[in-house]
Design goal:
Length: 457
């Protein structure tokens, strides 16, 4: 399998598409792009991250860069530290939700934001043309930053909602019993440190940050069955699970049920809306991607907020948020982006907002979720074939629609009477992703059968 290059950086299988030479070239190209100054490095805990980190650091030193090494930390922590240390950029060594045989690099600019389309295009061209140059002067300055997680936690605690209200004290008074599952990766220490600041009793499951996953790394309910059992067994008030680089968050209710990952951003929007004056009361804009549940619109409308949509991919959502000065944004995969903290998906921010919501409303997780309308969503993947676009055209025609009415900003987004369809090529894997949602069960079933007939028949 070839190296995957996208707006999410690069990812590959160790020893096959991701080799020492590949890593060296992309890091050298990265150094050519970012301004002069130090570079912040962190990794998600995978065993392969150790030798990759050494190559990354060595290459940066050879390029004349000073390096700040964070060790095993969440990707959002790397983003925060780039900002806080006024670094020229950062690299997170992670393959996010991909299996353990994968690893990769996420590239962060001087603003603590992932490379956008222009920066990635420039990077890929530099690498393809081997246009990077090793300067005459190299560096030997590597600083080990041991307080990175605490800096990240402190930035969350310094948000106005915690500094200017009694909500932090309310959370601490609740003494929530919380189970966390970090799959032995980068969130293992960070989540515990944050929750202790909130006065929670923490049950740590799979929190040895050695990168040896105990279950499939994508944080979706079907991969978290044992976690659900443990939330119930320990009689917890709430549970949280994260992916290996801890930028995505899944919630468990007090009954041990894994809450649909799409609802993480919905509850985060509600939390901000409930305390709007402590975020940005001058804005009423929320941004999510085209594959995120319509419940984002439902909850936003309830509080007088407006939802705008962007292509899938964190940087796409971030750029749209910046364009419209959004107060919150994210993705239905469990990603929460709060500009007041930083422009990046952040599971720690998500936890802080969810606990704030529980305390403000004085309700359980299941009680809050029960107030939402019932929707039906399916997420499927199919291998990419030559007739992919022909199948799309067949689907649109069968639905009695025209391609001229289809949103093509990010694949194919088709609005229906009671729902929508979104079909797009993955940014991180050689597949196509199909997401469809409907408020009407019978209509949802009809579309499901239609998909199976056209794409799998």
């Amino acid at each position: 399998m070839s190296l995957i290059r996208s707006i999410s950086g690069i990812r590959g299988i160790i020893g096959k598409s991701l080799t020492p030479n590949v890593i060296t070239e992309y890091v050298a190209g990265f150094s050519e792009i970012v301004p002069e100054g130090k570079v912040v490095i962190g990794r998600d805990g995978r065993p392969s991250g150790c030798w990759i980190e050494n190559i990354v650091v060595g290459t940066l030193l050879a390029m004349g860069r000073d390096v700040v090494r964070l060790g095993i930390v969440p990707t959002p922590t790397v983003q925060v530290l780039v900002e806080e240390l006024k670094a020229s950029g950062g690299i997170s060594i992670t393959a996010s939700h991909n299996p353990s045989e994968w690893n990769g690099l996420k590239f962060i600019n001087q603003n603590g934001i992932f490379f956008g389309q222009y920066e990635n295009k420039k990077l890929f061209e530099l690498v393809d043309n081997k246009a990077f140059k090793c300067p005459n002067k190299f560096s030997s300055n590597v600083v080990e930053e041991t307080q990175a997680i605490q800096i990240h936690v402190n930035k969350i605690l310094s948000l106005p909602i915690f500094k200017e209200t009694s909500i932090l004290e309310k959370i601490r008074t609740k003494k929530f019993k919380v189970l966390i599952d970090c799959n032995n990766a980068s969130g293992s220490i960070a989540l515990q440190d944050l929750l202790k600041e909130f006065g929670a009793e923490v049950i740590a499951l799979n929190c040895n940050p050695d990168g040896n996953f105990t279950h499939l790394p994508e944080p979706i309910p079907q991969n978290l069955l044992e976690t659900s059992k443990q939330v119930l067994n320990h009689q917890c008030d709430i549970g949280f699970a994260v992916d290996p680089d801890a930028d995505r968050l899944v919630i468990f209710d007090e009954n041990g049920n894994a809450v649909w990952e799409e609802l993480t951003i919905v509850l985060a929007i509600q939390s901000v809306a409930e305390n709007l004056e402590y975020f940005n009361p001058k804005s009423n804009k929320v941004v999510v991607n085209y594959s995120t549940t319509s419940l984002a619109e439902y909850i936003a409308k309830k509080y007088g907020l407006e939802v705008l949509r962007a292509p899938v991919g964190e940087i796409n959502v971030v750029q749209k948020m910046q364009e419209v000065s959004a107060i919150i944004g994210g993705e239905g995969s469990g990603g929460v982006i709060l500009p007041l903290c930083h422009y990046g998906r952040d599971s720690l921010v998500g936890i802080a907002l969810i606990l704030s919501l529980l305390s403000k409303m004085n309700l359980t997780v299941s009680q809050i979720i029960s107030s939402l309308p019932k929707v039906y969503m399916d997420k499927k993947t199919i291998p990419l074939k030559e007739d992919f676009e022909e199948k799309i055209e067949e689907l649109v025609e069968t639905l009695g629609l025209s391609l001229f009415g289809v949103n093509t900003e990010d694949g194919f987004r088709i609005n229906l009477e009671n729902g929508w369809l979104h079909i797009r090529k993955s940014n991180t894997e050689p597949i196509a992703r199909i997401v469809y949602e409907n408020f009407d069960f019978d209509e949802h079933q009809r579309i499901s059968k239609l998909f199976a007939k056209i794409f799998l028949g």
